[in-house]
Design a protein that fits this description.
Layout lengths: L1 H16 L3 E2 L1 H11 L4 H16 L7 E2 L1 H20 L13 E4 L4 E4 L14 H20 L13 H5 L4 E2 L14 E2 L2 E6 L2 E6 L2 E4 L13
Parallel strand pairs: 1-2, 5-6
Antiparallel strand pairs: 3-4, 7-8, 8-9
Helix pairs in contact: 1-2, 1-3, 2-4, 3-4
Length: about 220
């Protein structure tokens, strides 16, 4: 009886958290079904049943027996399908694609942007877009590194000194004086035998003969 009472309490509390109430016959039926479920899987099974209930067209917050029966049947079928379908083949163009949005500062589905649909044979501009997307991802991850995150308000002066700020190539264009900056970019050869530091804002020529040292990562 203690086990049945605990199951009934969990079921009642779970449905109340979602603003739903089980009728007495529906509650008894669900408790009987859940008696055969192991205690370690009980919470997960109750969650799946409640999800299946909410997927049905409900006319009120009072849950009838027929609704619970349908939910239990749907859960049983989904479990069987999970066991039967050991392997799932997903097409490359069916996988949801996300892209980092600089304006929203988060990843959004590519369908919400103006990017063209994916195709098997890309256009010449797709190669440039590949590097641009890769740069944007690396940039936002670098900005989140502890060395580049802005210091908290009221932080010690020593902590502020250990912080750095990323600049763009655009900040260098037109500057004549000597300055120390940190730029995230890609070294390219736009001309034969001449190296440039490039990012989406522009490109600047490099004098590699005076390069002191190179670092692999942060």
């Amino acid at each position: 009886m203690d086990v049945v009472r605990k199951i009934k309490t969990k079921v009642s509390a779970g449905f109340k958290m979602r603003g739903l109430v089980l009728r007495p016959d529906a509650s008894r039926y669900l408790v009987e079904v859940l008696e055969s479920v192991s205690p370690t899987e009980l919470d997960d099974v109750i969650e799946r049943v409640m999800d299946a209930v909410e997927k049905q067209p409900l006319s009120s917050s009072m849950i009838e027996l027929s609704v619970v029966e349908t939910a239990v049947q749907d859960c049983s079928q989904s479990c069987d399908e999970t066991i039967d379908n050991v392997f799932n083949i997903i097409g490359a163009f069916d996988v949801p694609r996300y892209i980092y949005s600089v304006e929203r500062k988060k990843f959004v589905p590519i369908s919400m942007t103006t990017h063209p649909a994916s195709s098997l044979c890309g256009l010449p501009r797709d190669k440039a877009e590949l590097f641009r997307e890769r740069y944007t991802i690396l940039q936002q991850r670098t900005h989140r590194h502890e060395l580049f995150t802005p210091p908290a308000i009221g932080a010690a002066v020593e902590e502020d000194r250990n912080k750095f700020q990323l600049k763009t190539v655009e900040a260098l264009l037109g500057s004549t004086g000597k300055m120390e900056v940190i730029i995230l970019g890609m070294i390219t050869q736009l001309k034969e035998g001449k190296f440039y530091l490039e990012d989406p804002s522009g490109a600047v020529a490099l004098d590699m003969s005076k390069a002191i040292s190179f670092h692999c990562n942060l």
